[in-house]
Amino acid sequence: MEPRLGPWAERAQPWLAQDHALLTDASGFRSRVDRPDLQVGSRPMPGDPNHLFRWRLPCVAAPAEIVFEGFVSRLLEYHKQWTREFAGGHVVEVLGPDARILYQRFEPGVPGIKPRDLCSLELVRELAPGVKLASFRSVDRLPPEPGYERIDWWGAALCTTLKDGKTSELVYLDRENQGGRFPAWLMNRMMPKYLVLQAEQVRRFFADGGPRELHEPRE
């Protein structure tokens, strides 16, 4: 986790460039699921026992602008739809038109496992018409809530509208250190199954173009 936010603008481009390379090139990832409608891979990263995971949905039934609006821009509103442990959150600070800090809480509902929280910086870019990229990094902007373990998270998303103009490809990176006594080896073992369920829920959420409100101008 970043010890402090620091000069985030200087770090933004390296983060985005690194994530874009990982999102667009599956080399180095070990295939964990390989289906025509979904691929999941994992790879170790230097100095980190928690593996970086990558899932890809080749076809989501909405263009990039709609998928990005629901999956990234309105994450706090819809996150529960594909992450059942999500228990709420809020925007901590808006740093600019393409950067903000989010706080999120998660309630596992499993005896013996503490609830988790997360404070992260979100950076977004429109790379080209119909191509949108987001990078997420944990930052130490807020202290953990009492009784919560703090997740150290690295995530990213790339959404690209396909040639038909009505559907898109969505690729997602996810590396989670759950903190506390949750071991990395167990997280690495659990993640493929968890991410398959997550990706499938995302696809269902955007079936038939996603919720109507995503197609309407925001007030």
Name of the CATH class: Alpha Beta
Got a strand count?
A: 10
Question: How many helices?
Answer: 4
User: pLDDT under 50 segments (min length 5)?
Assistant: none
How would you state the average pLDDT, rounded?
92
In whole angstroms, how far apart are the ends?
A: 35 Å
What composes the largest sheet? 10 strands, mixed
Number of domains: 1
Query: Structural class of the helices, strands and pairings?
Result: alpha+beta
Question: Which fold does the CATH topology refer to?
Answer: Alpha-D-Glucose-1,6-Bisphosphate, Chain A, domain 4
Q: What is the correct CATH architecture? A: 2-Layer Sandwich
Q: H/E series, N to C? A: HEEEHHEEEEEEEH
Helix content: 10-25%
Sum up the overall morphology in one term. globular
Radius of gyration: 17 Å
Beta-strand content bin: 35-45%
Describe this structure in words.
This protein is α+β, with helices and mostly antiparallel strands. The chain has a single domain (45-214), classed as 2-Layer Sandwich (Alpha-D-Glucose-1,6-Bisphosphate, Chain A, domain 4). The chain is 24% helix and 41% strand. Strand 2 and strand 3 form a beta hairpin. The longest helix is centred in the last third of the chain and has 22 residues, at 184-205. The relative contact order is 0.22.
